[in-house]
Amino acid sequence: MSSTTSRTATTRIANLDHVVAWDDSEQRHVYLDGADLVFKANEVVHVGPGYAGPVDGTIDGKGFMAIPGFVNVHSHPFSEPANKGLTEEYGSDKLGQSSLYEYLTVYGLNPEDAGPSTQVAMSELLKSGVTTITDLSMARDGWVDQLAKTGIRAVVCPMMRQGVWFTKNGHTVDYAWDEKAGEKAFENSMKTIDEALKHPSGRIGGMAGPAQIDTCREGFFREALQEARKRGIPMQTHACQAVVEFYEMVRRHGKTPIEWLEDIGVLGPDLVIGHGIFLNDHPQIHHPHGNDFERLRDSGAAVAHCPTVFARRGMVMNSIGRYMNAGITVGIGTDTFPHNMVDEIRLVCYAARVFTGNYKMGTTRHAFEAATIGGAKILRRPDLGRLAPGTKADFSLVDMSHPYMQPSHEPVRSLIYSASERAIRHVYVDGRQVVKDGKVLTIDVEAATAGLIEGQRKRLATVSQRDWAGRDADGLSPPVYGKKDRLPQSRPVN
What we know:
CATH class of one domain: Alpha Beta
Radius of gyration: 23 Å
């Protein structure tokens, strides 16, 4: 399968088995069978059967399903790929089972290794059908151009903060504050956002990013929100992501994180809450003296939901069905490795059902819509996350003949619960093919992986210098099995 390369050409993908199309009159996705998907340059011009207009090239779509590109609203491609093999099943026993305070600061990559790590993450995202990524990283030189070269549509959210957390004993968290460093980070973040908004690719957007609710002061949040509104972009922060954070905000202010965000005037339609798990009524929080859910619902703020990183440590949102049924906008992100959006969508469903004991609280529609139209709404991009005339030509083609897609009685379910990214064969962003036959066309994955391996190796060599207890990598994250030079000599067989 190939695409027409001219940026003014009209391309028809003909006779697709299925298209997950957007019905604007009913405001929902629908199946169209035996349909054509036609796009001119980077814009969809027709979705439906029997297109008879002029085209510059035709692609045979028989045997494929077209789905809208997934919109990922929360990801850390700078650091997370290097945590593979280290943080899958470890957290801090005495710090709410979180991995934030002992592990994040110890394992994070050196800044010079951000490029290869990001490229590996982008290759995984593209192969799993993500066409738009929100990248929460620290501002760095060359970041915007690096993202653009991968071919993905990206929103940069340069994280900035005034304080950093640390632990000296594994059971308490302290904060080191540096207002001057915060001012510099703020300035660099705004410069990066402005660079992104002016990027000639037209595929890079921006989002203001005060990093965490417990590492930024009230004035910092207000100024960030002011700058976001000035640029017409949203703002995202990590909040309600840890038991320690919840009680730290109560200790400081006598308010839950949600109450404090509301009190300082930033809990509203411009805010995206990264994670939003630990509200006062969450079963892992005993704080009956509040109404966080109702405040969140009424505020118009959105939530970026990333199930895998929390499920690894026994934590889960309560629940995507409850949030979305109440009208809260929810998007999905890949906060950790692997950067596989289909796996996240599946886990969203399973985790919600297990946690609530109710299979209706994490339906396929909840998760698929959060990963498409929910994410698009968060990014203020009604031209993303759906396939209809006038939307961007961001989509994936799913191989309906893949064994894991068969039987194909309900194709979206077959993709999410059985085939996952294995059946996603071709991906287009802005009308250009970026994945062909399951291979990323825009990234040298082998070279990027080699750089990632070397970056992790360098960082692991100095783990003991950053760990409060002086442990090395294996001491902090013990391997599944110990190593031996040899096995005991076997007995002779008679």
